[in-house]
Specification:
Elements: E1 2-5, E2 17-20, E3 29-30, E4 43-49, H1 57-70, E5 71-82, H2 84-93, H3 97-108, H4 128-137, E6 141-148, H5 153-158, E7 163-169
Parallel strand pairs: 1-2, 1-4, 2-3, 4-5
Antiparallel strand pairs: 5-7, 6-7
Length: 188
């Protein structure tokens, strides 16, 4: 089975279950990403696009450990987050106040969200170093990590390498072939 965590308004086709804390029409299970209502080792694939940055740093290790709990032994977790390092670099390299304001919206989240999404500001800025750290703390291995196109098209025009994609698995998983990029092909 395949699980998408934190799908928001944009569920990814091809997943058996979509989980979100908000009861959107396409969400099959309303739950907190930090505490999933599933048995151990249920899902062979887990996808999370723009979810982790909405959690506090103190919750990231436990959240990834929870996702590992519901992942099958040979499963893969694919995580997409805004690439904080690239966003900061783009911020520092522009002298245009309007562009800097837009880059801040990428880093901090948008305060002008629809009522159903209010309270979903970004609480964590994540980059390769932090993603590797939190994955290791949760007992997960980074299989592949790199820049990815972001589902928010405007971000790609503001920030080169706006998205960060990370593929995670259990440390004891033997992969016949190592992925060379995001499984969703930059769908974040």
């Amino acid at each position: 089975m395949k699980l998408e965590i934190g799908c928001g308004w944009h569920p990814m086709p091809g997943y058996d279950l979509h989980v979100d804390r908000v009861n959107f029409p396409h969400v099959e299970v309303v739950a907190d990403a930090r505490q999933l209502p599933f048995a151990d080792e249920t899902f062979a694939a887990i996808l999370s696009i723009h979810c982790l940055e909405h959690l506090e740093y103190l919750d990231l290790t436990a959240t990834l450990a929870e996702w590992k709990r519901v992942l099958t032994r040979d499963g893969v977790i694919e995580v997409h987050v805004p690439h904080a390092e690239n966003a900061c670099r783009a911020y520092l390299h522009t002298r245009d106040p309007a562009r800097r304001r837009e880059i801040c919206r990428v880093l901090l989240g948008d305060a002008n969200l629809p009522p159903a999404e209010r309270g979903s500001r970004h609480l964590a800025m994540l980059d390769p170093l932090l993603m590797e750290h939190f994955a290791a703390q949760a007992g997960l291995q980074v299989v592949w990590m790199g820049e990815a196109e972001d589902r928010h098209a405007v971000w790609n025009s503001l920030i080169p390498g706006a998205g960060l994609c990370v593929l995670l698995c259990r440390p004891d998983r033997q992969m016949a072939e190592m992925p060379t990029g995001c499984l969703q092909g930059g769908a974040s």
